[in-house]
Design goal:
Blueprint (H helix, E strand, L loop, with lengths): L1 H29 L6 H34 L1
Helix pairs in contact: 1-2
């Protein structure tokens, strides 16, 4: 079941990369006017990406734990 550990680690790394992307995009949005409609749309998209990245990381960690348990 070692392959589950590697798959879970890859999923977690993808999630962390997505969180990094959210940070970079968030800093760009921060420079925009807070009342601009473009800023609000960008923040809504960032929320979705952030939540999906967090979920992907959690799923990856669960797969790693399952792989360790079954080994």
């Amino acid at each position: 079941m070692e392959f589950l550990i590697w798959i879970g680690a890859a999923l977690s790394c993808l999630g962390v990369a997505g969180l990094g992307l959210c940070i970079i995009r968030g800093l760009k949005v921060r420079r925009m006017d807070a009342n601009a409609p473009e800023a609000k749309q960008a923040l809504q998209r960032l929320f979705v990406i952030n939540f999906a990245s967090l979920a992907l990381s959690v799923i990856g960690l669960m797969v790693v734990i399952m792989g360790i348990s079954l080994s």
